[in-house]
Amino acid sequence: MAPERCNLFLIYGSQTGQSKSIAEDIKTKAESFNYDVEMMSMDESVEKMPWKEYRFLIIITSSTGDGDPPENAGIFWRKIRSKNLGNDYLCHLEYALLGLGDTNYTTFLGYPKSVEKQLQKLGAKQFYKSGWADDAVGLEIVVDPWIENLWPALENQVLNPQTLPDTIPAPDTPAEQSSVTTTPELAVVSEVEKPLTVSYQKQEEELEKCAVELANLKISVSPLSECDLKVPVLPVSYLELKFNSELMFFPEDVLRKPMPSSRTPVFQAKIKSLKQLTSEKAAKTTLEATLEFSPAEIEYQPGDSIGVCCANCPEEVDALLHRLNMTEQADIPFKLRVKEEFAAMKSGTKPKYEVPSHLPNLATLRFVLTRCCEIRSVPRKAFIRILAEFSSDDAEKRRLLELCSLQGSDDYTRLVRQPELNVLDFLNTFPSCHPPVERLLEQLPRLLARPYSLSSSPLKDPTSASFIFNVVEFPIQDGRTYERKGVATGELSRMLDKIKTGPTDSVGPNANGRGFSLSVFLRTNSGFSLPKSSETPLILIGPGTGVAPFLGFLAHREELVKRDPSLICGPIWLFYGCRNRDHDYLFKDDLERWHSMGILTRLLVTFSREDKPSQPKYVQELIQLYAASLVKLIDKGACVYVCGDATNMAKDVMQAFIAAFQSGRQLDEEQAKKAVVQLQIEKRYLQDIWT
Q1: Using CA atoms, how far apart are residues 70 and 80, in angstroms rounded to an integer?
Q2: Predicted local distance difference test score (pLDDT) of residue 81
Q3: CA dist., res. 89 & res. 79, Å (int)
């Protein structure tokens, strides 16, 4: 496609691996168009600045926390904000930027948009309109058309360097209408045999709904079933795996490796206790885990969180190994390396192909699939393209090609992404698909640690820390072919089951966890911590397990007052919500004790499933009820802390504070929004939220 060989510099900022994965796809496609591409993380790119050898810069980056840089982009961010850089520092560059965010979080795309502003301040010019992808509705809705239209925009800029287009083609603009011919990054697949009609016999009652959903996943309808398809280019097969039963493999060496977002090394913490907090009638099962460790291993403060290095469910791993016909080889050590024909290839100064950083060169398949790979991850379209390649049934192959095609984006979002299907769901649904295990290892991302807010204070016991969590459950439906629990919460739930069925002396009121341990680390804290002065008023909002860090705050305050009874303390208001006071009012006795002691000034609790019409059901309604008092507290310097669900609660709480400012300060809505933003800038409106 490119009329001349041209250098591209591709950098990414990634927290979970999503941006890096997209950058890798772009790199593959760019090379197929005869571009020379060098790709690296944003932090790695700092050593090469100001990138004089490049004309075109492509940036893929996400945002974390309250608009903070991802883990591998902090150095880059500090560099481009350096005051000694002139406004012509990057004037030789023309850039395109793709930002990944989530509108469930208030600072949507904070970091990517800040990067763009800073690049422009340093003289870089935009040759292609920036794309802003929203994970709340589906990244692919923006990502796919942005990447497809990048190439004609880039070619146009190479041919006409004076023209900087202000807009990009609309996402639904057909490639045939652009000035270029059909591009090789999307292979055109002609119609094959019409999909076979698959009849499903009646299964057990609980699987009946699943069968209907599988039909939707497996069989398409017109016009998608009849049209030509544009599908991703087939990714190169670059890994080779060689088994050798004489090799020795030591898992401990792998488990000790640093994890993303860690501020301490990974270490083994014994489970001191593990118990269920909710009644059997509660809608959700909530557990509390207490860990035991040496103070030398971790020094934490209230508001900190830990990362739990979890393991995939053994039964799930066994099922995947069986489906891949690798059960007999599951525990034989192997060596993993790049195939010889690709090993010497370079991309700039770096190897073009490498063993993914989360995979050990020496391991067993069972270990890799249990501890290294996110086997629950939703397959990307490039992965589905690989699955299609190894499907022997024409109808199944066609359907897989549809799901990864540009034309099948709606089906991909509705049938794959939204129900969060994984590779095992695909293999169960498409029985003729038999991919080599190496192809899965090339595509499966890293198994990330799960974050949990600590609910304890080190002043009470510096050798232990607690966290609470709901056991997440996913039933067989919407294309999911087997029941599963959350990866980490499921592992802890299985531990509790073993404790309950263990020897009598291991069971008691604390559900002792003797004999079990977790690999954990202390996570980087983005500012969700107590203010330096105990006199600062605190407004805490945490429904459900969102109360966890505030339990630590209150326990810490109690210990401080015990040590210094004359300590002057500001008021603390807690807004807490649960469903039913008899089933899931977590830590009721502790909260009421702190309230009676004066540690907690106001304890305001809602019960959303109790039939009392006059009583507020949600924390945001309580905030509206006490709006005037809260504004007065904020005017006296109070800090607001919000912890819990980002999808609804966090947005509703913020809207309640905006309304409180409108009424309390006589502001219009725009002015009230700016008042909340100002609190965020001052680090007085802090959020620890999740989707």
Answers
A1: 15
A2: 93
A3: 12
